[in-house]
Every structure is written in structure tokens, then in C-alpha cells.
Amino acid sequence: MKNVTLCYIERGDEYLMLHRVKKKNDVNQDKWIGVGGKFEDKESPEDCILRETYEETGLRLTDYRYRGLVTFVNTIYETEYMHLFTATGWEGEIGECSEGNLEWVRKSDVPSLPIWEGDKIFLKLLADEEPFFSLKLSYDGDVLVGAVLNGRKMEI
Asked: Cα-flanking dihedrals φ and ψ of residue 30, to 5°?
């Protein structure tokens, strides 16, 4: 089981998205996701998202919110706990990312990009300003087979 962070940096009606096309053997190969990554020893979720955002984008977050915990269960991959953030303030300039290409994308266009099916669920929760939530997403390989929000099964 692993702990990771993910952040959707917001600029008006856009998110800064990472198109994962540069890493070999990447579970997110060709997908569009936010920025973030794996915890290092002794890091809190906030420590991790600040470090990972800087490493991947060159931006130092100045205004961010911890929005929810997403548990990914998969028949192929190990269980992952993803600490989900949004950010509206930062300093610095966007640089090159070794994991993919960074691009500002209209929020309304994100669901039509190649993203994980379950991402559509938590992106809607973010858009709806849902209070802090716990979302469990179950996959059989790349196929979403179940979703549970705050302990209640969802229709998918």
C-alpha cells in the first residue's frame, strides 16, 4: 500500500494538467492527471504536495486546500491512498516536467481527455465544493467497477 498526493492547480476556469507521456512503465501512461507523487519518510500530506508540486512544476504553492482522501483498490496494482488537494495561489514560473507535459486545460474539457474513469467522480466533487470527503474507487485493471463516497455506495 502506498500514500501519494495529487493537486489540481486552478487558474480561473482551468486546471494545470500533467499529460503523463515521459516515464517508462507508468501506471498513468498517456493519462492526464494533476501533479503530485509519493510520500517521502516523515512527510505529512502538506509537506508532500508542496515538495512534489515544486519538483514537477517549479511552482511554490501559497494557497492550497486539502480536499479529500481517495482510496484506489485494483486487481493489478497495490492499494493507494491519494491525498487530494486544490491550489489557487503560487509563486514562480512553470518549468519542464520529467514525467510528462504540463498544460492549462479548461475544467469543462478535462472529462473528455484520457483520464481514469474515477477521476471524473472526484473532479465533480471538487467542482461542487463538496466538504472534505473519503472516496473509495475499485478497479479491475483499467475498468472502474465500484465507488463508495463517505461510506455509501455510488451508482457508476
From this structure: 70, 0
Other CB atoms within a 10 A radius of the CB of residue 108 amount to 10
Distant-in-sequence, close-in-space partners of 32: CB < 8 Å, separation ≥ 6? 17, 18, 19, 20, 105, 110, 113, 114, 115
- pLDDT tens for 114-146 read 999 999 999 999 999 999 999 999 999 999 999
| CATH code assigned to 2-153 | 3.90.79.10
- Residue 95's CB is within 10 A of a number of other CB atoms, namely 12
Residue 16: half-sphere exposure toward Cβ, Cα within 13 Å: 27
Report residues of the chain scoring pLDDT below 70: 26
pLDDT tens digits for range 77-88: 999 999 999 999
Q: 3-class DSSP state for residue 31?
A: coil
Burial of 128 (0-12, 13-18, 19+ CB in 10 A): exposed
For the CA atoms of 79, 85, 86, 88, what is the dihedral angle to 10 degrees? -140
